[in-house]
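Our consortium's second objective concerns turning raw sequence data into structural hypotheses that experimental partners can test. To show how far this objective has progressed, the report includes one record in full. It was chosen at random from the queue rather than selected for favorable results. The single chain below, 267 residues long, was entered without modification.
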Amino acid sequence: MKVYVVCDLEGVAGIVDFKKQCMEEGKYYQQAIRLATMELNALVEGAIEGGATEVYAWPGHGSFPGGIDFELIHPECNLVMQAGDGGPTGFDESFDAMMLHGFHGMAGSGGVLSHSFYPFPQNIWVDDLRIGEIALNMASFGEVGVPTVLVTGDQAAIDEAKALCGVIETATVKWALGEKEKLGALSIQRALSLSPGKAQDTIRVAAKRAMNKIDTTMLFKIKTPFNLKVEYTEAKYVDRFKDLPEVEMLSETSFTKKCYSLDEIIF
């Protein structure tokens, strides 16, 4: 069985400071991507124990290296590299399952480092559904018939995935304890985190269980066409969209756009 893993960084255990841990120039960035890689390795081990024969992972946190330490990667994990951070690539209907690793909640969810794609979109709607990175990734794989069977991350990410998909395996490694400050729409929270070892054990067990849910997990899809609405924290982030086809300005900080496919989503 083939499994595709979409990786992020902000939902990894111990990752709580965006500037110091999630930006390449941050003092603890290298430590952070090592922690993310060890969690990914645990996920790969669990998936293989559960029956996976091929595992592919796309590191989606920024451009290369994408939040993963290549030297430490599990020997059975195939890494999708130099593919940018615009969304996972190299997947199709030949995959049996997708797993989300190291994810955070969308902007406004109250989670640890919660945001939607980058710090400045405040709200993103598809018709009446407010979405973030979890929903868009699940929908992209749902389009080709691949179910999302696992999400690992903080409690807000887990709650978000369950609301979209219902039956899904989860591994919670972090909990928000109250907002400390904001960076745009990104919420920096006081947090409670599992230790790296405990988080890895939790993820390994969950990934193994998730392999048994491939046939019972429903596909999450976004019906097309749909109306996209994006709201930003400041007007300066909207200016670049004003003259694009199908775009209608709603206010100085928001716009709407008719979309006929997921590829037409902009933010």
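The partners drew two points from this record. The chain has five helices and twelve strands. The CA atoms of residues 243 and 257 lie 12 Å apart. Both points have been shared with the crystallography group to help prioritize constructs.
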